[in-house]
């Protein structure tokens, strides 16, 4: 059947046809590294991961680019509020770069613990200021900008399709109207309410920590331009898929499209826009800037494995809002445990796998493919996995199919089974050594020193050293 994705641009499911056959260029908006990622943010990255894993499993060569925002992201996406990085650095008494490094590492530590595949390219905004300046020059050359109050603005009235992604009307956006912009204190330099800053020179952040020279004066970039500049650099002027949370539709991604297409003149900049719904708590939004959020570590501190949270996320479709509670996380933990327990008990010997080769199993794989290809329906795909586990045979072929499905789920099922086997091996080795220690003690008691020495030597040959003391004999592996 092939992949079908719900494209926000057009609001319909569309067959995935990449620009280059067999390849997929993918850009996912990355973290703003002024604080830990919260578990809502991690939902977005698990969604990207499922997409990438699914495409790779289907044979696509995926180039996955992720930005790290370490400059210019104000607390409101529409140029209002404080600079998130600067504020965090001030509060913590550190430099902006120290804060960025610390939270970037923390981010990849968390994504690693959740088995989220590392992107092919990770690019920091501060390393790409030249690319941003060059892109802004193109936008300016093509007549989409104006300078006011020291800042360079993008004029949305010059870009007729502005707002298409968000299904917003340009006329409303010009005036502010019933849109995001109505609630924001208006920047009087803006000609239209929806205009946005491409380059700041003068602003309320006079002591901005990071500033660069530019044709428009010493200053720093607006937030949105980094994603346009870096995606174009690494994926080309047109590419296949762009993703992020639904909060990015009305401003950030709308502005990214306007900038990119204004600069290159090529349309569409991105063919497929995938947006994940929010993870919510107590019917409220989880927000990093408000400080009221849960981190992955806080789940670990409550006794959960990061993969329990991954399993929890797989149980909801990425386009449905997901309500988080510790009760439901506990449900996911129990379900994951019964999944791994069942695999362990059903498949005693994980070594003897030579691929999926019988028709019954192939039909399970086909059901799985259908679920994943249908806009990444992980809840349905999980049901297929459970069906195979419950009703399928205990054959190597069935186990191969389970591992194949887990290339998408990323639950580490193969490692779990092998580690469990190693754990069994460790346990049986320990039992054997304890028995030999008893036999050696008995041999010594019977004054059969040759037999006792033989036991010690045979263990030493296997790298196990016996240490006698008045309290008995201990052993250690070397
Ligand atoms: P940020 O670090 O704030 O730029 O956000 C990183 C990603 O997480 C973006 O794609 C956001 O759209 C997404 N995001 C933010 N909050 C949530 C949430 N509660 N649930 C799901 N995704 C979210
Ligand atoms: Zn972005």
Task: Give a description of the structure.
The chain is an alpha/beta fold and 478 residues long. 45% of the residues lie in helices and 17% in strands. A five-stranded parallel beta sheet has the order 7-4-3-12-13, with helices on both faces. A four-stranded antiparallel beta sheet has the order 8-9-10-11, covered by helices on one side. The site of zinc ion has 4 residues, from α7.
Total beta strands: 18
| Quaternary form | single chain
What is the makeup of the main sheet? Answer: 5 strands, parallel
Bound molecules: adenosine monophosphate, zinc ion
User: Mean pLDDT, nearest integer?
Assistant: 90
- Contiguous uncertain segments of 5+ residues: none
Overall morphology: elongated
- Give the end-to-end Cα distance, rounded to a whole number of Å: 54 Å
Summarize the structure in short:
With 478 residues, this protein is α/β, with parallel strands linked by helices.
Describe the secondary-structure layout.
Layout: E1 4-7, E2 12-15, E3 23-28, H1 39-57, E4 61-68, E5 74-76, E6 80-83, H2 84-92, H3 96-113, E7 121-124, H4 129-141, E8 145-148, E9 151-154, H5 170-175, E10 196-200, E11 220-221, H6 225-235, E12 239-245, H7 249-264, E13 270-276, E14 279-281, E15 284-285, H8 296-301, H9 306-314, E16 322-324, H10 326-346, H11 359-373, H12 378-391, H13 396-409, H14 413-445, H15 449-461, E17 464-469, E18 472-477
Parallel strand pairs: 3-4, 3-12, 4-7, 12-13, 14-16
Antiparallel strand pairs: 1-2, 5-6, 8-9, 9-10, 10-11, 14-15, 17-18
């Amino acid at each position: 059947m092939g992949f079908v994705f719900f494209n926000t641009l057009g609001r319909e499911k569309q067959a995935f046809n990449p620009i280059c056959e067999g390849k997929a260029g993918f850009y996912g908006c990355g973290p703003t590294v002024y604080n830990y990622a919260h578990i809502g943010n991690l939902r977005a990255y698990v969604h990207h991961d499922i997409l990438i894993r699914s495409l790779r499993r289907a044979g696509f060569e995926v180039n996955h680019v992720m930005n790290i925002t370490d400059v210019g992201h104000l607390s409101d996406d529409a140029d209002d509020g404080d600079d998130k990085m600067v504020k965090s650095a001030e509060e913590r008494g550190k430099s902006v770069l120290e804060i960025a490094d610390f939270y970037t590492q923390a981010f990849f530590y968390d994504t690693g613990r959740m088995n989220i595949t590392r992107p092919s390219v990770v690019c920091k905004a501060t390393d790409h200021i030249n690319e941003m300046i060059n892109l802004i020059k193109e936008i300016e050359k093509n007549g989409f900008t104006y300078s006011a109050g020291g800042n360079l603005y993008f004029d949305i009235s010059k870009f007729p399709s502005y707002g298409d992604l968000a299904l917003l009307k340009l006329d409303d956006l010009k005036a502010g109207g019933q849109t995001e912009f109505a609630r924001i204190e208006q920047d009087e330099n803006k000609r239209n309410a929806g205009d946005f800053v491409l380059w700041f020179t003068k602003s309320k952040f006079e002591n901005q920590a990071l500033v660069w020279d530019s044709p428009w004066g010493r200053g720093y970039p607006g937030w949105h331009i980094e994603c346009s500049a870096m995606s174009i650099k690494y994926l080309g002027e047109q590419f296949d898929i762009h993703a992020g949370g639904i909060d990015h539709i009305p401003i950030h991604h709308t502005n990214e499209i306007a900038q990119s297409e204004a600069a290159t003149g090529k349309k569409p900049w991105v063919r497929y826009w995938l947006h994940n719904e929010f993870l919510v708590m107590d019917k409220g939004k989880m927000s990093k800037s408000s400080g009221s959020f849960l981190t992955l570590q806080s789940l670990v501190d409550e006794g959960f494995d990061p993969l329990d949270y991954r399993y929890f996320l797989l149980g909801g479709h990425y386009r449905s809002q997901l309500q988080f509670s510790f009760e439901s996380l506990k449900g996911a933990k129990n379900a994951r445990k019964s999944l791994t327990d069942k695999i362990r008990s059903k498949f005693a010997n994980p070594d003897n796998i030579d691929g999926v080769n019988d028709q019954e199993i192939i039909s399970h794989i086909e059901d799985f493919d259908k679920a994943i290809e249908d806009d990444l329906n992980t809840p349905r795909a999980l049901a297929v996995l459970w069906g195979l586990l419950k009703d399928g045979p205990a054959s190597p072929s069935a186990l191969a199919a389970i591992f194949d499905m887990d290339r998408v789920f990323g639950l580490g099922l193969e490692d779990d089974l092998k580690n469990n086997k190693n754990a069994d091996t460790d346990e049986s080795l320990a039992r054997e050594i304890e028995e030999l220690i008893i036999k050696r003690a008995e041999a010594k008691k019977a004054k059969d020193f040759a037999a006792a020495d033989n036991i010690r030597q045979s263990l030493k040959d296997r790298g196990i050293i016996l240490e006698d003391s008045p309290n008995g004999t201990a052993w250690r592996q070397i």
